[in-house]
Specification:
Blueprint: H1 2-9, H2 17-39, H3 41-61, H4 72-87, H5 96-106, H6 109-114
Helix pairs in contact: 2-3, 2-4, 3-5, 4-5
Length: about 120
């Protein structure tokens, strides 16, 4: 909720209701579906291909969740994905476009400042 509040307050959410709904959908996906599927070990084997496969396909066609521009949805989903190599020893080689996405995010100066590795 805090991410959406801050994004709204700073004018970082789309004004178009349909596009705004997509952003909300990605944020909710990150906080419920993705987090549960990746970070709960009992779910991981079943859920990881179901979750990362479609994301991999998406990132083959566009650099960020909502298209060509980094946004709030990427903060939500990307923050979880970029914790995978930090917290879990998972082989993501079956998802090269997801790995590229994670690299795009982790190379951003704000990401590096937030993680204490730059700036």
């Amino acid at each position: 909720a805090i991410l959406l509040y801050l994004a709204e307050r700073q004018g970082q959410l789309p004004t178009d209701l349909a596009t705004k709904a997509q952003v909300y959908q990605w944020v909710l996906f990150a906080n419920s579906t993705l987090a549960q599927g990746i970070f709960i070990e009992a779910n991981r084997e079943r859920e990881m291909p179901r979750l990362l496969g479609p994301l991999n396909t998406l990132f083959v066609h566009q650099p960020f969740l909502m298209g060509t521009e980094f946004g709030v949805a990427d903060v939500a989903v990307g923050s979880l994905l970029t914790y995978i190599p930090v917290m879990l020893n998972l082989d993501l080689s079956a998802y090269p476009a997801v790995m590229d996405y994670m690299q795009r995010l982790s190379s951003r100066p704000a990401f590096q400042r937030g993680m204490g590795s730059g700036g």
